[in-house]
Amino acid sequence: MPVSGLPPYDENNIFARILRGEIPARKVYEDDFALAFHDIAPKAPVHVLVIPKGPYVSISDFGAAAPADLVAGFWKAVSSVATSLGLDQPGYRVLANMGEHAGQEVPHFHVHLLAGKPLGPMLAD
Ligand code: AMP
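Predict the joint structure of the above. Result:
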């Protein structure tokens, strides 16, 4: 059981299949630690997902169980993807859903990079 309390990692979740090349994705960046690709149902003009290359169901699982080089490499990839896409000005939002109350749909840790327009308040309500 991952530390987050979510079910064990499902090797056939959609992002695991993207990592294995079984499902296509519009990739924007890849290195030894992370893969970034466009969200299939964008919620903003720029909506990119960044995922670590490892079997972690959530941000809690990743922080607790991933090796330090992967944690560092992943977070470096997140910010460098944003910079390379030209998002630093006028800014962007990084968001990670974890578990039921956040509405996490895909049980492979990922962060959303959202940009391209004023994004409004942090939460809908
Ligand atoms: P979350 O609710 O945080 O788990 O977000 C999951 C995200 O994955 C949603 O924004 C989906 O639109 C996105 N998504 C689901 N399947 C795919 C896919 N095959 N390629 C790209 N994005 C996907």
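Residues 14, 23, 25, 39-41, 49, 97, 103-106 surround adenosine monophosphate (CB under 6 Å).
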